[in-house]
Amino acid sequence: MKTKGAFAHMSNNGPNQNSTGGRDKEKRSFLPPPLSPNRQLILVAAWIFVGEICDMLLLSHLPPYPPLTKAIIDASFLLIIISPVYFLLFRPFKAQWDERLRMEKMLIENKERLDLALEATNVGLWDYNVQTGKVYYSPRWATMLGYTPEEIEPTFQSWETLLHPDEKDQVIGTLKNHLEGRTPYYESEVRMRSKSGNWIWILTRGRVVSYDGQGKPLRVVGTHNDITVRKQAEEDIRYLSRQLLNVTEEERANLARDLHDELGQVLAALQFGMETLKNALPEGQENNRSQCQRQIELVAQLGDHVRNISATLRPAMLDDMGLESALGWYVEQFSRQMAGIEIDFQASGPDGRCIQESGIVLYRICQESLNNIAKHSRAKHVNIRLTCLSAQVILTIQDDGVGFEPKAEGRLGIGLLGMRERAASRGGRLSINSQKGEGTTIRVELPVSEERTE
């Protein structure tokens, strides 16, 4: 019956709602009769006692009758005296009893349905009493971690000791935020230690379902779901995505080197040959010398384009001097091309080379962001902040453009999706904050080192 009780208050929406609201009719069927069974017993005994006294007084005033006649008179009088007990006490009590049996049967059926649903969906149930610290853990909750129900003490500390140290504070903080009313529900993904010592990914959800008169939470009910397979699949996808991006970047780097070295050398030789040809022309052929000079300028211009394309494909300074220098160079080049946009770039923290393995991801995201700003935002000012911390690096790109509705961000095409995919491939997170007429802020958080765990 505990499981059903866990959902008895699910209709409550907050601390201002009466915890018994909406169920008064249902509770009336559970109210005891006007008199408790003990009082009914005393009343019936007193009723019979008084009835017997009245019966004896009646018989004492009657003329002598045969014993059989007196017995019939005595039984009839006693039946008349006791008959109100049936109508005033027994019938209401029986109606109450039948209602209790019906509700108990309904509760048992609902509990069976709930158990079957939890078993079919492989979900564990927990019911936390905030005041006492006691927690009900369903059998599936325990077996999900390899324990028997008897091995898990029904306390909050039992759950707390199984949490992974790296996520313990965050998960408990999320639960605290919900208990204090800052979030509508509690949800978190956390690793928990199984009986075998392995870490199992658990998706835990919950919600306060009962409050006291002062609005303080009394009970929280929720579920546990094993998502280890899903998390492993996400890790595999992230690893494959990272490998794909690495291959793409390697190809771009190879292409950039080929353009810079081979094609650059050819153009340099062509330019040198044209200059030699120009110098070899005799005097008096100024027209031909002018044509040679124009060709030399075109070759030089083509060489500049090749170098710019090579640098765009894969800037050499990203590998040689780090992310900060590469972003500074790119921002300078972008500012020259887009003279109407003022860009303020600042970097803080340790040398950008400490995050070289993730630097190309941030570089590409900055590239795509500035391209989107140039095409869509009509911004006049852009602030770019690169913050290198010991455990993560944060890139923030903020513009004062026209902005957009978050629900319409899919209209930007694959650019935004590519940025998110790049961040996710390194175990990072990309968030976008934008409103119509108030510009856009893109924030990227990447861990300094994100390696695949085999």
Provide the descriptors you would attach to this structure in a database record:
single chain; 454 residues; 4 domains; alpha+beta; Beta-Lactamase; disordered N terminus; 10 strands; 13 helices; five-stranded antiparallel sheet
What features would you describe in this structure?
With 454 residues, this protein is an alpha+beta fold. The chain folds into 4 domains: 32-119; 123-226, Beta-Lactamase (2-Layer Sandwich); 231-314; 321-454, Histidine kinase-like ATPase, C-terminal domain (Heat Shock Protein 90), CATH 3.30.565.10. Helices cover 55% and strands 17% of the residues. It has 13 helices and 10 strands. The strands form 2 sheets. It has a 5-stranded antiparallel β-sheet with strand order 2-1-5-4-3, sandwiched between helices. Strands 6-7-8-10-9 form a 5-stranded mixed β-sheet, covered by helices on one side. Helix 3 runs antiparallel to helix 4 and helix 12 (356-377) runs antiparallel to helix 13 (414-425). The protein is rod-shaped. Residues 1-33 and 450-454 have low confidence and may be disordered.
Write the layout of secondary structure elements.
Layout: H1 2-6, H2 24-28, H3 37-60, H4 67-121, E1 123-129, E2 135-137, H5 139-143, H6 156-161, H7 165-179, E3 186-193, E4 199-211, E5 217-226, H8 228-280, H9 286-313, H10 316-320, H11 323-337, E6 342-348, H12 356-377, E7 381-388, E8 392-399, H13 414-425, E9 429-434, E10 440-447
Number of domains: 4
CATH topology of the largest domain: Heat Shock Protein 90
- H/E series, N to C? HHHHEEHHHEEEHHHHEHEEHEE
- Low-confidence regions: 1-33, 450-454
Beta-strand residue percentage: 15-25%
Q: What is the helix tally? A: 13
Give a count of the beta strands, DSSP E runs of length 2 or more.
Answer: 10
CATH class annotation of the largest domain: Alpha Beta
Mean pLDDT: 78
Helix content: 55-70%
* CA gyration radius, whole angstroms: 41 Å
Query: Largest sheet, described in full?
Result: 5 strands, antiparallel
Shape: rod-shaped
Strand order of the largest sheet: 2-1-5-4-3
Termini separation: 44 Å
* Overall CATH architecture of the largest domain: 2-Layer Sandwich
Helix-strand category? alpha+beta
For CATH, the homologous superfamily of the largest domain is named as: Histidine kinase-like ATPase, C-terminal domain
